[in-house]
Amino acid sequence: MEKRDYKHGKFTLATTDTDGFTYEDFVEYCKEENWDMDEDELNIPGEDSDEFWEWCREEANTNWECDLENIKHCKEYNVPVIITGHRGLWWGKPEIQPVRMESVYDAVLWCVEGVDAATVEFEDGVVNVYAYHHDGCNCFTIKALSKKGIAKNYACKQYTEYKPCDTKRLPYLYAIGI
Q: In whole angstroms, what is the distance from residue 9 CA to residue 11 CA?
């Protein structure tokens, strides 16, 4: 069996995207929900129906909530972090002042507040958040603070100046313990 390198690479941790669901999955769901009915009695809505797309949205929301719970309860992700990045606005892409949070979960919630859709990805030891809204996409990077980075900013929550030695790699959430 091929061993995967989970320290390097890009992996989706959470997404609100509905593209991963198929009509066949929906049909199977309908059959399971109505297990006591004969197949010829089932009235399964079509592939372009509102019912199918509503099911896709519900599944995506359920997966998003479960993935955020995994992030919230992961011991390795409950460390102080720094958020950097930019907001995608109609008039440009202003950089944000770095923001310190007490966990990856808190940082993700800060990044996705008030947006229409989001994707959270692990890439080479950092977490990237793409938060989509009516003006465009906010792009944020979440990095864990090292002991030096935490000590340097112990007294205040806002962290304005940092160096690479002030951060450390996060592990890939779903490879911990592998």
A: 7
Are 110 and 96 contacting, i.e. CB atoms less than 8 angstroms apart?
no
Residues in the chain: 178
Which tokens sit at 105?
């979960």
User: Torsion over CA of 123, 85, 15 and 57, rounded to 10 degrees?
Assistant: -170
Q: Which residues pair with 119 in a beta bridge?
A: 15, 130
Nearest to 163 by CA among 98, 114, 76, 88: 98
Residue 14: enclosing H or E segment and its boundaries? Answer: strand 10-15
What are the beta bridge partners of residue 73? none
**pTM score, two decimals?**
0.85
- Give the number of other Cβ atoms within 10 Å of residue 48's Cβ: 8
Kindly give the confidence (pLDDT) of every residue in the chain, 178 residues in length, as a single tens digit, with 9 standing for 90 and above.
556 666 677 999 999 998 789 999 999 998 888 766 666 667 888 899 999 999 999 999 999 999 999 999 999 999 999 999 999 999 999 999 889 999 999 999 999 999 999 999 999 999 999 999 999 999 999 999 988 888 776 545 554 567 778 889 998 888 765 4
Largest CA distance in the chain: 68
